[in-house]
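Protein in question passed on here:
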Amino acid sequence: MSSDTLHMAEAGDKPEAPPPTAVSFFDPSLSAVRRGVFIQWGRTVLILCTFILAILSLFWAVQSRVNQNMPALKIWVVDFDAQLEPYRNTTPIVGPAVVEVVNQTLSSGTPNLGYTIRTPADFNNDPWAVRQSVYDEHAYGAIIINANATALLRDAVTTGNSSYDPLGAAEFIIISARDDTSYYNYIIPFLSEFDLAVRSYFGPLWVQTVASEGLNFTAVPQAINPAIGFTTIDLRPFGPPVITPAVSIGLIYLIILAFFNTPFMMPIHVQLIKGNHPPLKIPQWLLWRILSNIATYFFLSLFYSFVSLAFQIPFDNPSAPDTQPADNPNAYGHASFFVFWMLNWVGMSALGFPCENMAMILGFPWSALFLIFWVITNVATGFYALDLAPGFFAWGYAWPLHRIVEALRTILFDKHSRIGLDFGILFAWIAFSIALFPLAAAFMRWKMKHGWA
């Protein structure tokens, strides 16, 4: 007997059993375990596959009816041609031609913008009121045929006015900072097609008119071809390109950063209720977690905002008149960065507290599925025009990221403001989540007592 064995015998200890010998996957001794593993594996795969179909479908679905819903992108068509003094005595040619092309476009049966013919009286006979209507987001854009469109064109061919500019006949009014994706993918291309359609329709008619009246073809060639055109006036152009992450993809990281607050901070919080010391009272522990989360979001959102500042996104430009085109006007002047930071702080809190609650309710790893759900539903409703989405997505107007994106565009581009509503909905999310917080914590403790966590 060895000295170690003799010593263990004298001490009354039993010798340690040798570790079990590893066996092959199909060894009979693993049959029960193997069956359980197969069942759990199959159940987990089924849950994940069902999750993919149910949740990822939302992302595809938000773009599933774009062509059918294209008329939701309203474009006012307002013909002022010869409708205002001193041009009322002119027989209009340009305005009726543009309106006729609109009617042909609407009757073509192909997907197109929501062209809507409005009268000058609808805007108090004021072209600037049309611009204001676009700025106020009553429409995505407007086509204005200027009051002097026909008068200037006729004057050019009758008097030989070589300074005639065809682009002075009409205007496209847009505001691309409202939703750059919709404008660049749909609205601007369709307006370009409309411009070509108007020129194709008006050109032959105008040449026939000039020929029949014996007017001069050569004195002012631009008055013959193209004769008329459209000046595009973008009240709030989207740019510079570096601003794109701040109002789109970069916001995904706002959600992810808020989500990872829980796994990073929970081990720290637990020290207050576990260990060789009297545990902190649960209500105070919950209050500490809520306040510390808010403080964490405060600093995380600040440094998140610093990234935009570091890459010189404009934050100190003055505001601009609603109806005048302006590059990068900021809604709050020099205070815009502070408002930007506050929005990111409140937005991160609105996005983060639901993640905190679901982490306690679902536990890990299932809370990761909530992160995917949270990202997909917020991205689908925040980055794409809900006017083009199926009606099912109307709930998206109340989703946090939609309000954050809208408020960010107000701050960065001085577009039409609903920032009070935006902040109000975000605060409502925070209040609801904090109200749910004690219930989620109680459920987590209940799961731990029953060995479910």
In short: The longest helix spans residues 180-212.
